[in-house]
């Protein structure tokens, strides 16, 4: 059914129909690729393909929906100049290859760098580089499982409650760092640290 609709939309260059199809995360990835290949110079379609890949990926179940086609699309979208905004979806996707994340870590758009900083697939050497970046970028480090402990320790004293909150909830942060947050001035932060330690006991 989908294939026939896609063929029809491709024949008539009906992007509105394709965009509607791409809103469905259960659309087969092969069909997503067919749409992207035919319309990679259409900003709206490229943006919606990126959104589709984002919708079908769970940060909590990282192996779900993984496929070589998804990786191929993520790599292509990352270097597609037609839609700079689509790069944020690539930056936050846990299936994005490390070399693409390295490339996006120098992106001129701070939101893209911020999402790379929060991506659990980003290696620690790239995360270290972000520590001297803008606040919006630095904030992503506190919840990332790959952030080096020496940086997490500094973030314990961050003025922003949300930075400390994400750190308190970071399951990969060393126990001694989470322990420091038990006495945080903010009740929510200390409570999150207590819950984190409780789950490890």
What's this entry about, in short?
With 201 residues, the chain is an all-alpha fold. The chain is built from 14 helices and no strands.
Query: Would you identify the regions where 5 or more consecutive residues have pLDDT less than 50?
Result: none
Write down the secondary-structure element order. HHHHHHHHHHHHHH
- What is the number of strand segments? 0
User: Shape from CA axes?
Assistant: elongated
Give the helix level as a range of percent. 55-70%
Using only C-alpha atoms, the radius of gyration works out to 20 Å
What this model shows, in words?
There is one protein chain. The protein is an all-alpha fold and about 200 residues long. The protein has a domain at about 1-140. The protein contains 14 helices and no strands. The protein has helices at about 1-10, 15-20, 30-40, 45-55, 70-80, 85-90, 100-105, 110-120, 125-130, 135-140, 150-155, 160-170, 175-180, 185-200. Helix 3 (about 30-40) packs antiparallel against helix 4 (about 45-55) and helix 12 (about 160-170) packs parallel to helix 14. The chain is elongated and about 65 Å long. The N and C termini lie far apart (about 50 Å). The mean pLDDT is about 90.
